[in-house]
Every structure is written in structure tokens, then in C-alpha cells.
Amino acid sequence: MTLVVVALGGNALLRRGEPPTLEVQESNAFAACAALARVGASHDLVVTHGNGPQVGLLALREALVGEGDRAPLDLLGAETEGMIGYLLERGMRSAMPDRAVAALLTQVLIDPDDPAFGSPTKPIGPLVSGDEARRIARERGWSMAEERDGWRRVVASPVPQGILELEAVRLLVDHGVVAICAGGGGVPVVVRSDGRVCGVEAVVDKDATAALLARQLQADALVLLTDVDGVYRDFGEPDEQLVTDVTPETLAGLDLPAGSMGPKVRACLDFVSATGGRAAIGSLDAAPDVVAGTAGTQFRRS
After folding, report:
1. What is the pLDDT averaged over residues 145-172?
2. 95 within 8 A of 34, measured Cβ to Cβ
3. Catalytic annotation on 122?
4. What is the homologous superfamily of the domain 3-109+161-299 according to CATH?
5. Given 40, 85, 206, 277, which residue is catalytic?
6. How far apart are CA 99 and CA 105, in angstroms?
């Protein structure tokens, strides 16, 4: 069977406007797994996922409580990777009872001198009002950025350099196990000169990590599933148009925000350029068709 690496957006579990309850996230996880099971029926499958809404919400809750030591972003990332991985593993086992499934906590190497630390762009957490954003920035020293419907915290998103658990993931895939890994882009770490692994205050972009994982696993396809049908030209405007076929030359004139669709497009282009494989961005609801190449935005070499 062909190997497909699928990246679920963080909004697949906690969509905009939904209350951040466990019941809501569990329901969304099981719905996502039902769609993924249709892909896994005819493909080997590695699943990654976002955690932007969840990790930001945990950080905001800690800030509001204001008591005791506040956990750094790498620990919050590990916490959300474990929680979401658990929900997805339960969902995949329910949807594919005859298939082995394993969720793996994953650490990702980053460069401590990455320029991203001087220019945070990764949005995490819930939307807040302008007044609330200014108060949070003043009291916590957080960077806040305006979006369409409000303000969100933005954090450093360094480029992933390597995946510490790569061989463990490869072993799972070789034995036909559906591997759930690299959640939230993986827990960002550095390895010191003395060999000690240390966490880093950042959130790695899950699409960049998914592309790296797909390249290193020599996957046949990389598929990024989200809450929109694909990449749109003039998104949000009355004459918006879905772009169904993308090469580097067709990107001219597309508005690709750094914190949302931009990283997804770059991840797909990086994968197809490096491997010649297929890549796509599309709706979770249409997952089998996006994988088959008949829906969403499909990426190819020039």
C-alpha cells in the first residue's frame, strides 16, 4: 500500500466559535477519525495534528490563574500532544477495529538561533477583543496579532530540523500500524553539547513538521486537512476562487497569511519539490477525495 502522511488542523478538534469542552473535542475527534478511516482502508497512514487552539487555551488559563510556576510552551505542547493523541487513538481504534493504532509523543529538533524567535507569527489560543489583547500584552509581555474577528497570541515558530522519534515511527509504519505522531508540530527541543535534551519556548508549525516527516519517511503523499476546501484566490472576497492546481509559478498574486495558509502551501511545495510525490490541501469532510486527487488544492512540480 502507498504511504500517506495526513496533517489535521487544530481546528479539526476545536473549531472557531465552539466551546472548548472535552465533549466537543471528543466528538470532533471521532468525526475526524471516521473520515481518516476511509483513507486508511487502502493506504498506510501516519497522522499528525495541530494544537494551536488547545496549547494557547492552556497558556491563557495558566496566565489567568496567576498562581505557582507557569509551564513553558514545550511542556504545554507535550500535554496537548498527549491529550489529542489519546482522543485520536481512541477514535481510530473505534473506526478501524482491525488495525493497530499507536500515538507517539514526538520531540522535534530546532535551531536555538532560528530567526523566528525575533519575529513571532504562529497564532495560538482563543480570539480576544482588542482591549483584552492590549491588557494581556501589557501584563504578560505576550505578542498579540489582529485577525479577522479579533486578536490572538502569536509565538515563535522555528523551522523543524529533525525528529528524534523518526526510527520509532518508521518501525510502526513498517509493521502496518497507524501512527499518530508529531502532534502540534512536535515538542520543540535542542540538544546541548553535553548531550542533554532541553525544551524550547516555542510552537513548531505542524505542517512544516508533517512535510519533514513525510520526506524522511519517503511517503507517497502529504495531505493537509483543514476546515476549508483548499487554497483560495482572493479568499473572503465576493469573487473568491478555489485554486485546484498549484505549481510555484501559479502562486503569484495569492494572499498567503504567515500564520494560516502560508505555511501549508510552503509545506506542500517543499514536499513535492524534494520528493516528486503528491501533496494536497483540502477539507477534512472530503478526505478520501483529497487523497485521491479529485478534490481540494493539488500540488505538483513545475
Report:
1. 92
2. yes
3. yes
4. Acetylglutamate kinase-like (3.40.1160.10)
5. 206
6. 20
206 is catalytic: yes
Q: Is 10 a catalytic site residue? A: yes
* Interval 165-196: pLDDT, tens: 999 999 999 999 999 999 999 999 999 999 99
What pLDDT is attached to residue 64? Answer: 63
Catalytic residue among 50, 77, 183, 264: 264
Provide the pLDDT confidence category of residue 149 given band limits of 50, 70 and 90: confident
Q: What is the pTM of this model?
A: 0.88
Which residue is catalytic, options 9, 10, 85, 296? 10
State whether residue 29 is helix, strand or coil: helix
Question: CA 274 to CA 277: how far, in whole Å?
Answer: 8
**19-37: average pLDDT:** 88
State yes or no: is 183 an active-site residue.
no
Distance CA 30, CA 105 (A): 20
In the chain, where the domains are located: 3-109+161-299
Query: Which residue among the candidates 28, 50, 122, 185 is catalytic per the annotation?
Result: 122
